Predict the 3D structure of the following.
Amino acid sequence: MSSDDAYSSFLDQANQDTGASKRSAPAEIASTKAIDTEVPVKLQNVEQYYTSEADEPFEPVSLKWDQNNMPSENEFANLIGHDKEVSTMSTKEFDPHGQYERVLQVVDEAGDGKSRIFRVNHGKTRAEYYVVSLDRQTGRVVGMKALAVES
């Protein structure tokens, strides 16, 4: 019987929660503002995914902007409510293989035909890509955005 008790005690200890599986800090979730005004119809039915470790869909962007020029990196960060790094990139850097031509085309059509691409950093492995254009007639920045996981 004592060997059964010893074995039972061993199993109880082996099955105790050590806390090793718990994360020390929750993973940062990317969340920025993308819509605060009516979304153009052209942007509502685009079914395209950004290829990364997450393969997230592109989502519409429509933000009030009463200026005549596209926002700078800092202005764009303020517009989307982001307090970390925002940078711009060329179309060639964003889409070197031409797989997002549809997104670029639809954004150009929804705005003034001059797309700009912002990369919004969310820590070391997450970023959002905003492909946007200026719609001067309605006073807004319109486009598409997608989350990327890049480790």
